[in-house]
Design brief:
The protein is an alpha+beta fold. It has a domain of 44 residues: AN1-like Zinc finger (Zf-an1 domain, Irregular), CATH 4.10.1110. The chain is built from four helices and eight strands. The strands form four sheets. The chain has a two-stranded antiparallel sheet with strand order 1-2. Strands 3-4 form a two-stranded antiparallel sheet. Strands 5-6 form a two-stranded antiparallel sheet. The radius of gyration is 40 Å and the shape is rod-shaped. The termini are far apart. Keywords: Metal-binding, Repeat, Zinc, Zinc-finger. One of its GO terms (molecular function) is zinc ion binding. One of its GO terms (cellular component) is endoplasmic reticulum. This is AN1-type zinc finger protein 2A isoform X1.
């Protein structure tokens, strides 16, 4: 043998093989060959120090401490029942804003508030005329509502100027009364 100091013998009592690339056990700090370097293969007396696992709650992703001798599944189950902040059976309501119009039972995701009476309404009753709003300024009449709808659609050509002038005259007449 040219290199008698090269390599180390396996620390396993039944092996004692000369290994040129020995592996050191993290727990007991002894050298082992490839076949015996795991804690289970050489029956490491300090394996309990290495085999520490902390279970994580599947709902809230927080670590759950487990004492020695306890079953991790039971401890995680108790955590879910008592301490867990996330409850899968309890769902948050999405449609929370109920329409204030009498007889309407619709709910909306976002609050649609009236500028005049500050009530919360559904999309169908959001305009002051649609929910018979009587607060604030004078409510818009039927002609004003028709004018607003006509201006939104915006027909083209001569019909547009004719209907616009007619609506303008009609609104002026309503305002004067």
């Amino acid at each position: 043998m040219e290199f008698p100091d090269l390599g180390k013998h396996c620390s396993e009592k039944t092996c004692k093989q000369l290994d040129f690339l020995p592996l050191k056990c993290d727990a007991c700090k002894q050298d082992f060959c490839k076949a015996h370097f795991t804690c289970a293969a050489h029956k490491c007396p300090f394996a309990f120090m290495k085999d520490v696992q902390v279970p994580v709650c599947p709902l809230c992703n927080n670590p759950v401490p487990v004492k020695k001798g306890e079953i991790p599944d039971v401890v995680v189950g108790e955590h879910i029942d008592r301490d867990c902040n996330c409850h899968p059976g309890k769902k948050e309501k999405i449609f929370t804003f109920r329409c204030s119009k009498e007889g309407c039972r619709k709910k909306e995701m976002m609050q649609v508030a009236c500028d005049q009476c500050h009530g919360s309404f559904c999309i169908q009753h959001r305009h002051p005329l649609d929910h018979s709003c009587k607060h604030g300024g004078r409510p818009i009449g039927a002609a004003g509502c028709a004018a607003a709808r006509a201006s939104e659609s915006k027909p083209s050509g001569a019909l547009n100027t004719l209907s616009t002038s007619w609506l303008a005259r009609r609104l002026r007449w309503k305002v004067k009364r």
